[in-house]
Specification:
Blueprint lengths: L6 E3 L4 E3 L4 E2 L4 E5 L6 E3 L4 E2 L4 E5 L2 E4 L4 E2 L4 E4 L2 E4 L4 E2 L4 E4 L1 E2 L13 E2 L3 E3 L4 E2 L4 E3 L3 E2 L4 E2 L4 E2 L7 E4 L4 E5 L4
Parallel strand pairs: 1-4, 2-5, 3-6, 4-7, 5-8, 6-9, 7-10, 8-11, 9-12, 10-13, 11-16, 12-17, 13-18, 16-19, 17-20, 18-21, 20-22
Antiparallel strand pairs: 14-15, 22-23
Length: 173
């Protein structure tokens, strides 16, 4: 199901599975030279105003991943989101950045880097959370609203704060 005013750039490297819902004003931008682009597996939901942008990286959303409204996923390498994972509104996943070593060269003109991000299955990222490049989030983990993930989070963790810190193992009663 497609909403209105969807923007699809480079559709030849975008794969959309069955029963995918793409809400209004979503942008899928699969630019790049040698990447595989964007893969949306069966049952994926993309909320309105969400942007997925490949900058020569790949973005893979596994089965039934649910990306809320106004989210942003960018990849200079690879971003993979696990099966049944939830993103609340305004979640940002930033798979890359600019190198900033040259003081007198504008940042926009300096090289970029992209390590990649993997978010496990059945994870939940709270509203306005952010995951930085090079960080992975384990299966069944929860990232609290407003948290900024600057290092990898183990599976079954609850992590909150800026920077995000693990406060609980979900297996502990």
């Amino acid at each position: 199901m497609f909403g209105k005013s969807i923007s699809i750039r480079n559709p030849h490297i975008i794969s959309i599975g069955n029963n995918v819902i793409i809400d209004d004003n979503v942008q899928l931008d699969a630019k790049g030279i040698d990447n595989e682009g964007i893969t949306l597996e069966d049952g994926v939901f993309l909320g309105r105003n969400t942007i997925i942008s490949c900058k020569n990286g790949n973005v893979i959303l596994r089965k039934k991943a649910n990306v809320g409204f106004n989210c942003y996923i960018v990849s200079l390498n690879k971003v993979e989101v696990g099966e049944n994972t939830l993103f609340a509104a305004y979640t940002y996943v930033i798979g890359g950045g600019h190198i900033s070593e040259e003081l007198y060269v504008p940042l926009k003109d300096q090289d970029t880097h992209g390590i990649g991000i993997k978010i496990g299955r059945d994870a939940w990222l709270g509203a306005k959370s952010m995951v930085m490049d090079g960080c992975n989030i384990g299966d069944y983990s929860i990232i609290g609203a407003g948290a900024i993930v600057t290092k990898s989070i183990p599976e079954y963790s609850v992590a909150v704060g800026v920077p995000a810190k693990v406060i609980k193992d979900r297996r502990d009663k």
